[in-house]
Design a protein that fits this description.
17 helices; binds guanosine-5'-triphosphate; binds magnesium ion; alpha/beta; Rossmann fold; single chain
């Protein structure tokens, strides 16, 4: 690399690398790389080239094949790039091997997301949680090669503790982790005291993929001014606002968005922020209706809710940004596929009253989260459940389908009758 390339500090030139294969189609991998591109921009990098490789299984030493690594080395020179970002997580030794051959800085998906979190964290709670996640991520990767490269180059992947802690050894990092955990414990206690004052109000939490419009919805509902931006991970803290619907006062909370392959160290250290979701009574799952591959986005959020143990809450599915859907047929198709969802535009203030009425119906306990077990071949019943309720989880067991679903109590009574008439083997609810 020449002098000129090295001086490009702000807009670090980056090559993005992804893999497709038996579990991921090329189109899906392309979409994932497009997301990685946005993440890289968010982190301040300048993605100059996307590289995809078809592989059945990842290479143990290099993740991608050695031949591909050599090819990438040439591209690095060609594009004057100094960084490689992978769409997956790499083992510490894979990072070392690729770095040795390419002489470039190598960042994996978790490293990139952690870096963005580090630059977004503003409050003491968010900063502490991100630092803890970063240290847990760095610890197994702390080798001479890694510290040497990071110290020399700076830029993406080296923010936060990367700069201050990199010279310290594992033992010091261990100590710092203990200090951060203690700090979080204290913050948790403060939160507990704050919460006591608002215990009797119903708590509604906004959840969803990053950039779906959660903060915009909070602003639209409460005429508030929470930071909403066309950025990934614009929000990292939990914001709680009172909101009046008719005579009913509720609390609405907005918090960190989800993303596919959210680093586990982040989920663990963001416990206090995610508690806001776990302790709420109702979830509004906000989905950006204009995104391609809606089902995938919905699945990622449901899986993350499962992971943080918040999947037992009643969920109102809210499709946001309807103003962006110009084709009425497409909108009708989505409405048909999600008959219980609410369609809104936070930006244009469309559908907000309907959403509020639905929230009131949930508060009045008109909906219950139940699990039903139905023979797969009883199409009529299966489609009744899909039409009447919001199905949150589907599992197959022999010739039965087990569905976790939010049902209106009238529909629950109906279903109970149908089930009794249909099949003695059918159980409802399933214990
Ligand atoms: N066209 C349109 N854009 C919207 C709408 N709602 C939100 N947006 C835009 O979508 C982007 C993301 O909105 P946010 O409210 O920041 O999204 P978020 O879910 O809070 O995102 P994170 O905090 O990053 O997880 C912003 O640029 C908003 O202006 C809408 O109804 N229509
Ligand atoms: Mg937000």
């Amino acid at each position: 690399m020449d002098e000129q390339t090295l001086s490009l500090k702000q807009e670090e030139k980056v090559l993005l690398v992804g893999v497709y294969g038996p579990d991921l189609s090329r189109e899906e991998a392309e979409e994932h790389l497009a997301e990685l591109e946005r993440l890289t921009h968010t982190a301040g990098g300048n993605p100059v080239k996307k590289i995809l490789q078809n592989r059945t299984t990842p290479d143990r030493e290099y993740y991608i094949g050695k031949g591909k690594v050599d090819e990438i080395s040439l591209m690095i020179t060609m594009y004057g790039a100094d960084t490689l970002i992978f769409d997956d997580d790499l083992s510490p030794s894979q990072v070392r091997n690729i770095q040795r051959v390419t002489k470039a800085k190598v960042i994996d998906r978790s490293g990139l997301i952690l870096d963005i979190f580090a630059s977004r964290a503003k409050t003491s709670a968010a900063k502490t949680q991100v630092e803890l996640a970063q240290l847990n991520y760095i610890l197994p990767r702390l080798t001479r090669a890694w510290t040497h490269l990071s110290r020399q180059k700076g830029g993406i992947g080296t923010k936060g503790p990367g700069e201050t802690q990199i010279e310290t050894d594992r033992r010091l990092i261990g100590k710092r982790i203990a200090v951060l955990k203690e700090k979080l414990k204290k913050l948790d206690q403060q939160r507990f005291i704050q919460r006591k004052g608002r215990e009797e109000l119903t708590r509604v939490a906004l959840v969803g993929y990053t950039n779906a419009g959660k903060s915009s919805l909070l602003n639209a509902l409460t005429t508030d001014n929470v930071f909403a931006e066309d950025l990934l991970f614009a929000t990292l803290d939990a914001t709680v606002r009172r909101h009046q619907i008719g005579k009913k006062q509720i609390l609405v909370s907005d918090t960190v968005g989800f993303i596919r392959k959210l680093p586990h160290s982040l989920i663990e250290s963001f416990k206090s922020t995610l508690d806001e979701i776990r302790e709420s009574d109702i979830l509004l799952h906000v989905v950006d209706i204009s995104s391609t591959g809606l089902d995938d986005y919905i699945k990622v959020v449901r899986k993350t809710l499962e992971e943080i143990k918040a999947d037992d809450k009643p969920v109102i599915l809210v499709f946001n940004k309807v103003d962006l859907i110009k084709d009425p047929v497409k909108l009708a198709e989505i409405k048909l596929a999600f008959p219980k969802a609410i369609f809104i535009s936070a930006a244009q203030q469309i559908g907000l009253h309907e959403l509020e009425s639905e929230i009131l119906r949930y508060i009045a306990n008109e909906y219950e989260s139940v699990t039903v077990k139905i023979p797969v071949n009883n199409y009529k019943l299966v489609s009744f459940v899909h039409d009447a309720g919001t199905v949150k989880k589907v599992k197959y067991q022999n010739d039965k389908v087990i569905m976790q679903v939010d049902l209106h109590k009238n529909d629950r009574i109906k279903l109970e009758k149908y089930l009794l008439a249909a099949d003695t083997e059918t159980s409802f609810p399933v214990s």
